[in-house]
From TrEMBL, chain A:
Its main location: mitochondrion. The pyruvate dehydrogenase complex catalyzes the overall conversion of pyruvate to acetyl-CoA and CO2. This is Pyruvate dehydrogenase E1 component subunit beta. It comes from Phyllotreta striolata. One of its GO terms (biological process) is pyruvate decarboxylation to acetyl-CoA. Its EC number is 1.2.4.1.
From TrEMBL, chain B:
It is an enzyme of class 1 (oxidoreductase). It holds the Pfam family E1_dh. Belongs to the BCKDHA family. Its cofactor is thiamine diphosphate. Residues 80-375 form the Dehydrogenase E1 component domain. It comes from Phyllotreta striolata. InterPro entries: Alpha-ketoacid_DH_E1_comp (IPR050771), DH_E1 (IPR001017), THDP-binding (IPR029061). The branched-chain alpha-keto dehydrogenase complex catalyzes the overall conversion of alpha-keto acids to acyl-CoA and CO(2). It contains multiple copies of three enzymatic components: branched-chain alpha-keto acid decarboxylase (E1), lipoamide acyltransferase (E2) and lipoamide dehydrogenase (E3). This is 2-oxoisovalerate dehydrogenase subunit alpha. It catalyses: N(6)-[(R)-lipoyl]-L-lysyl-[protein] + 3-methyl-2-oxobutanoate + H(+) = N(6)-[(R)-S(8)-2-methylpropanoyldihydrolipoyl]-L-lysyl-[protein] + CO2. Its EC number is 1.2.4.4.
């Protein structure tokens, strides 16, 4: 099945981050705007206030307020005991956080970026994800591993990649890849309260972007369910499934398609494990067409998983055309701006793919 | 360009400012003094850390004030646990060779380090072990039947058949389930110690000379020191990491020498002397608890057995070397000489006990082998705290499948639910 890669040199990543981002909330009119960064911050703040077992650990998270300022003000408010700067060793503090969770605390382990979490992945997969099973349900590990994931800007191969598929592969983990401020707040709170280990994949490019927050989302009781996708925009002609920043691309493409009389249904996955296949299946039964969109690599990716699940299910018979994946190019991320833009899909690619699939000119 | 006058002026200024320096250097990164001697600091700069002992090889106390004078019942339990460990090792090692269980690791030669340290701890202290510390669990009250049930992964295995043999765990005894990847227990133990600060408990983390080479060991020692965690790092230096001798594992003075480098108080102890291990652990526990600080213990010992049932150690060490250690410095015999000279044990009691222990063990062994395997539905449980829908679906599917094809599966060997 075809994997469509962007060859467009027009994919201006940064520009895209700041336009067309008012699709996602329920109460548009009076909604307060909040950046993704602040929503993550308030989620942690509220949960730390609610439960004194919650603490944050990572590099630069305390006095420096976090490398991306996501933990801003928390050290001042909660002090050394609950916001802990660590020496530089991901393997060390991920292990220490895992041990603290085994002993009954609820750590939030911040990775400066998930690129550096590779050093700690043994603790995440072999210890955090498996201890509950290996101890036959006696020792649970309520921990959140969080930090920025996915394509960033101008930082090339080792700092710009999506680890969603890596973690989603592993039983015992829950994996969340939120899109906007509401997602981040509601899902991070859910992750902190969850009894199992959760990998929470943020997006660096979205940290500074403002999204509307409903009154409900501003409340301290706002928690979103893990494992449930959200229909960001209803439509009847084609289903676009995405997570994280790719949701934004889909919404943008949907807007353009709408002007051509094509109504795309955009599904924001929110959680990658467990995957909400039911919402996708229901949508495909209605639209009879499916494209998955992600910024990560194609092989064994999130899109591959979605298509396989649809293929295996009764929903397959609802498809009028083969489902396709739209992914990042199967290359390490290049540095040069023009090459970088060509390595990840943009809204125009989605529009073209939809038109091709629906045989519309 | 400098001319002569400006150079001498510069020297004058420099000289004057030099007189203002104190003899202490002021760098934030080290509190030390200045020196004008250019030389290497190395292995030759310090004497190797000595090995603390209480007993000599014949079980006689060298310095009477060092005898912990443990009550008779404690000493006898120590000795009994050490001997039963040997019986368990022999039978379960053979059981693996006969294909009854898939894997086993023996403890032979290191019994004193297990029992001596375990006896000095409080039962509420949390233990993170590596994989060769069955004696610690035995001391805490894990029953022989529980060991055997775990190795068989039968229906009474407290880990419900989910963990490989000898990867014991017991929450009631504060013994964390053993994790195979080498060294991961080290930073995790520090995390637990951090969580237990001020709760009148400490964490004890066992590891080997090989695991000490993992990056995790560095991270753990460094964090425990900077975060002031109440933990004992207990290194069993048994001379070999599978086949790698310590001479290829490190170039310095063992593991103990690293302690002061991290600012961690350290004791090197004779790991074959149960009483020395007891004293060292007791002192370390008192210090860790009262000061909220880590301690490093390096217990010097020798692994008599193979690394595991997947290993044949005669490929890399001589039978003579093994024989020397098992006859000249046997930790079990050493404690037996001691309790015998105390008058609380004798040859007759010893013979009776060994027969009785063997009998008791074999009864448990046979019972463990006969027990059914856990119900197959358990396969899907404990992945998450609450079973997610997709696993419930899989379970329902498997239920139908097994029901339909039950004549083709050994369903009678599994526990009913």
């Amino acid at each position: 099945m075809a994997t469509i890669k962007s060859l467009s040199l027009l994919g201006q990543l940064n520009k895209l981050s700041y336009v067309n981002r008012h699709f996602s909330t329920t109460k548009l009119t009076a909604a307060k705007q909040m950046t993704v960064r602040d929503s993550l911050n308030s989620a942690m703040d509220e949960e730390m206030e609610r439960d004194d077992k919650v603490f944050i650990m990572g590099e630069e998270v305390a006095q420096y307020d976090g490398a991306y300022k996501v933990t801003r003000g928390l050290w001042k408010k909660y002090g050394d005991k609950r916001v802990i700067d660590t020496p530089i060793t991901e393997m060390g503090f991920a292990g220490i956080a895992t041990g603290a969770a085994m002993a009954g605390l609820r750590p939030i382990c911040e990775f400066m970026t998930f690129n550096f979490a590779m050093q700690a992945i043994d603790h995440i997969i072999n210890s955090a994800a498996k201890t509950f099973y290996m101890s036959a349900g006696r020792v649970n590990v309520p921990i959140v591993f969080r930090g920025p994931n996915g394509a960033a800007s101008g930082v090339a191969a080792q700092h710009s990649q999506c680890f969603a598929a890596w973690y989603t592969h592993v039983p015992g983990l829950k994996v969340i890849s939120p899109y906007n401020s509401e997602d981040c707040k509601g899902l991070l709170k859910a992750a902190i309260r969850d009894p199992d280990p959760v990998v929470f994949l943020e997006n660096e490019l979205l940290y500074g972007v403002q999204y509307p927050m409903s009154d409900e989302a501003l409340s301290k009781d706002f928690v979103l369910p893990i494992g449930k996708a959200k229909i960001e925009k209803p439509g009847k002609h084609i289903t676009l499934v995405a997570h994280s920043k790719a949701v934004e691309l889909c919404l943008e493409a949907a807007k353009e398609l709408s002007g051509k009389g094509i109504e795309a249904e955009v599904i924001n996955l929110r959680t990658l494990r467990p995957l909400d296949v039911d919402t996708i299946a229901k949508s495909v039964s209605k639209t009879n067409h499916l494209i998955s969109v992600e910024q990560g690599w194609p092989s064994c990716g999130i899109g591959a998983e979605i298509l396989a699940r649809i293929m295996e299910s009764e929903t397959f018979f609802h498809l009028d055309q083969p489902a396709i994946r739209l992914t990042g190019a199967d290359v390490p991320m290049p540095y040069a701006k023009s090459l970088e833009a060509a390595a990840i899909p943009v809204a125009k690619d989605i529009v073209e793919a939809v038109k091709k699939l629906l045989k519309v000119k | 360009m400098f001319n002569r006058t400006s150079i001498s002026l510069f020297r004058l200024v420099w000289k004057n400012s030099k007189t203002k320096f104190s003899t202490q250097s002021l760098f934030p990164s080290a509190r030390t003094t200045w020196t004008e001697q250019l030389e290497f600091t190395g292995k030759h700069s310090y004497e190797p850390i000595p090995v603390y002992r209480v007993l000599d090889r014949l079980g006689d106390v060298i310095k009477p004030e060092d005898d912990p004078n443990l009550p008779s019942d404690v000493l006898i339990k120590m000795y009994k646990d050490m001997t039963i460990l040997g019986i368990m090792d022999k039978v379960l090692y053979e059981a693996q060779r006969q294909g009854r269980i898939s894997f086993y690791m023996t403890n032979t030669g290191e019994e004193a380090s297990h029992v001596g340290s375990a006896a000095a701890l409080d039962p509420s202290d949390v233990v993170y072990s590596q994989y060769r510390e069955a004696g610690v669990l035995l001391w805490r009250g894990f029953a022989l039947q529980q060991f055997i049930d775990q190795c068989y992964g039968n229906r009474d295995d407290n880990e419900r058949g989910k963990n490989m043999p000898v990867h014991y765990g017991c929450d009631a005894l504060n013994f964390i389930s053993i994790s195979s990847p080498l060294g991961t227990q080290l930073p995790q133990a520090v995390g637990s110690a951090y969580a237990l600060k001020g709760k009148n408990r400490i964490v004890v983390c066992y590891f080997g000379d090989g695991a000490a080479s993992e990056g995790d060991a560095h991270a753990a020692l460094n964090f425990a020191s900077t975060l002031n965690c109440p933990i004992i790092f207990f290194c069993r230096n048994n001379g070999y990491a599978i086949s790698t001798p310590v001479s290829e594992q490190y170039g310095g003075d063992g593991i103990a020498a690293r302690g002061p480098g991290y600012g961690i108080n350290t004791i090197r102890v004779d790991g074959n002397d149960a009483l020395a291990v007891y004293n060292a652990t007791k002192k370390s526990r008192d210090y860790a608890l009262s000061e909220n600080k880590p301690v490093l213990i390096e217990a010097m010992t020798y692994r008599i057995g193979d690394h595991s049932t997947s290993d044949d150690s005669t490929a890399y060490r001589s039978k003579e070397e093994i024989r020397q250690w098992s006859t000249n410095d046997d930790p079990v015999a050493k404690l037996r000489y001691y309790i015998t000279s105390k008058g609380i044990w004798n040859d007759e009691k010893n013979k009776e006990w060994l027969e009785e222990a063997k009998k008791e063990f074999m009864v448990a062994f046979k019972a463990g082998e006969k027990k059914h395997k856990p119900h197959w539905e358990i396969l899907f449980e404990d992945v998450y705290k609450f079973t997610p829908e997709h696993l419930e679906k899989q379970m329902a599917y498997m239920k139908q499948h097994v029901e339909k094809f039950k004549n083709h599966y050994p369903v009678n060997e599994f526990d009913g639910k």
